[in-house]
Fold each of these.
Amino acid sequence: MTYHNPRIPEGINSGRQTPLRDLVVLGAGALGLGFGLLVTLMLIGSWLAPLIPFSWERDLASAINAQDLAGETVPSPRLQVIVDDLANAAGLPDDMILTVHIMDSDMVNAFATMGGHIVVTRGLLEALPSENALAWVLSHEIAHVENRDVISSLGANAFFALGAMVLLGDADVLDELILGGGGLANLHFSREREKAADLEGLTTLVAHYGHAGGYAEALGTLKTYAVLQELSPVFFSSHPDLDDRIKTLDREVDRRGWRMETTEPASDWSS
């Protein structure tokens, strides 16, 4: 018997797709895997960070925020009294110490940063029409601190930055993504966390004053100045729509049967 070596057909090892298309598919798959890894790391960081004791967070904040807070803000003994009273009304643990600062800025804004530091701008203090409105804003930020939203957001950013550093090979991305250009970076929270802070802030407001007056004034002021400062929708992109926030709180007031009474007049909180 004679054996004949058959001729191999041309293109037997080539796919039907072009090499360029194969490259695009592989590249898209790699990008998808990388994105999935970053999202997973963010979720892990968001879950792990709040496990850090608050005292450790405050020590870390002292190292990160000290220079920024000293250079951009001033303390306010009068505001501190209100914050302490609201913290008691919210039932914060004794070790969860809060410190309020005033930032000399025309921007109408307030935010919580690491270690229980709450920053309120001069523009917000001048814009809010009543003490109760200010108290609801402060209560909202206190809720972010109590729920550990700040450290959770920072943990997500840190793990994202770590993954990005591994994928990109650029160590500088850690500073850029963790600190956001400074210790006073205004961290953005999810809409769910913002909604929770709204509702908890309302509960604290009622616990302190005995009625719910003030939240609608605060949100109405934020809505007005968001338009004037051309911040909508970008500035509030992580927040629920302001009208929806008011409606949600209105429904909660009706459900709980809370009273709406006259609010306390605004005063000079800068001292």
Amino acid sequence: MAQDFLLSLPILVATLWIVLLIVCEAAFQRHLLTKYLSLIGFVGVAAATVYVFPQQGFAFSEMIRAGAVQHFANFIFLLAGVIVTLTSDRYLEEEKIWFGEYYIIMFISVLGMMLMASAANMTVLFIGLETMSIALYVLAGLMRRDKRSSEAAMKYFLLGSFASGFFLYGIALIYGATGEMALHRVADVLQLRGASPLFWIGLSLLMLGLFFKISAVPFHQWTPDVYQGSPTPAAAFMSTGAKAAAFAAIISVIGNFSVQLQGNLNWSVAVSVVAVATMIVGNVAALAQEQLKRMLAYSSIAHAGYMLVGIAAGGAEGFSAVIYYTLIYTLMNVGAFSVVALLESEGLGATYSDCTGIFKDSPLLAGAMAIFMLSLAGLPPFGGFIAKYKVFAAAVSAGMAWLAVVGVLASAVSAYYYLRVIVAMFMQEKNQPLKLPMTSSSLTLAVVALAVLLLGIFPTEVLKLTAKAIELGFAP
């Protein structure tokens, strides 16, 4: 029992801290206090993760699995939560939605992400998915007076519930085919009996639910509308944390079923087709956007396609590349959305034209946004370049060079709409000067931009860590 509590310590700390946040908010109703308590909670969960990082194994009757992959994923979720929390204040105050429950709901969503990454049993995987999703539905509709926010929440809820239904039905079919709910037990049964058609149908439906969460084509239609209508900090969080959690779950499922999936041509072709469609649709649609939030929404779809290249490649190289990609993507995409949130908090519409002249009035903010855009485009020496290189290299190593070529071409297309932001900021002038005061949010974004740059110049240690995490992640 003591070992169970030790292995699941980060999840337990997060759960207890959520209870504390709810009590404090109900008792004091001081949103600033709730914010700082949330930050302390994120740090506490991170400390608990560091403490148990060397540990690995199953907990609570093999419902939870702790290991390097899960711990690394927890850091990504916590990082997204911390950055969004630090950069939200001005936007929330301007939109009159600076409520303490905003931070509590975000913390609950992080708990759901942690459960998804640590799930050894499909029941826990579903509980984590729903915990994360319901919290995100609420965040999407937080601007109660804005019809677009209500529409975003309703659309996300309805489509998300529909995808969850497929996900749950897939779990039921896998259980029917194997008689087991634990992922590694299912894998053992498949090795003894082989994979039946019922199992393959169930796995397809389960993956459909996860593909919805990463906005993979053709399950992507909700993304631009939901991101556009949601509070911008909430869009930043759901575009990174939720995507990272879904990819962690995908890696967990595929890692356990690797014997059945390895060399399966139909599986490889199916994931490759989805990856190609996602990269092409995301990038082509982003070219036509004028609103920065919609552009970033389609950009997030395209990046899901890049990460799916690593999933299609499979193996330790492909999975470790995807984990590294989720880390870099979280930093640069949260940063880009946070810059948009700052623009909106100053009364700007956050279109390309609203970016003009930012460098003259706020060099720090413009420089940070330039780094995020260049990294999203995959240009050296930024972290996004290394991330794309690793997933494409994994595809080449797996004998799927054509998939890497499609990825490179799609990435080249994306350079247009990313560089368009930089041109507006640095090379065009606005008729009236902007008022962009230096804030703590600007300093936070500068630190995030520096991290994106350093992870592009010195990626070796982090890449070694992700490779080691995958190596240990599915050890018995």
Amino acid sequence: MKNAKRFLALLLTALMALSLVACGGGSTEEETTTPSTEEEGAGTTETEETYGPGYVLRVGMNCSAAPFGWTQDDDSNGAWPIDGTNQYVCGYDVQLARLICDTYDWELKIIKTDWDGLIPGVVSGKLDCCISTLGVTEERLQSVDFSDYYWNNGCIMVVRKDSPYVNATSIEDFDGAKITTQIATIWEPLVQQIPNVQAEPCLSGLPELFVAVDSGKVDGIITGLSEAQSASLSNPDLTWVTFDEGKGFDVELSALCAAVPIAKGNTELKEKIDAVIATLDHDTQMEMMTTALNVQPLSDGTGEALQAE
């Protein structure tokens, strides 16, 4: 068990080191900020001192994607109430939302939202922003602006440990496999990149996806590395497959780097959120993720903490 935890910690460290380079950490200003589509006079919002102390920040969150956010019945481990329910949400994204609100003395309102409703919720004004590990894509940039990146999630395949695909090093090795992923995510279009894929219907939540692969209904699911690590802690029959350089999915790096969607033209809110994200250096992000992995449901049967090295 200790060797497995040490291996997980090393993977987390390597992922974060890559994210600092690939997602802009320690580079030029052009590299550290996410792209945005600027159309003069279109979709702008007022920015006069709107966000003073006491402002209620309405944050959309999926609440079913451990270790970034999962639903629980109490407020233990820093969980926050889900608006309009008697449940709470806990995880890495909750830590970020709380940090933003604590920084500016704002009140936090987390609104549970389906994946396909997150961007529309910001566009409609129902939500101020979403903190739900959303990647930056050209399609999304047509509707919203994004904050700077706060995590690089990678892109891998989850399989059973006894799967014939467990030693795959390329998506070509999944030729003809039954594959699915989560609906309305950046992973959905990647299914068709697998040769002769038997594409199964996309599912709405990560728990459903992990059940599907664990039960043998599908051969593999496409997801992020952090989600795969989380699932493997609570599903001992599962593991993940990474791909050799140039043999994985064809996907823009920006789509794998989580950022916060904000209404187009809302520069005041973007600048305030970016200022908080700028304080999240490598060590801070590692501490936040280690905390999330430690306290997620069924994270560790031994009671020993997972440590980032």
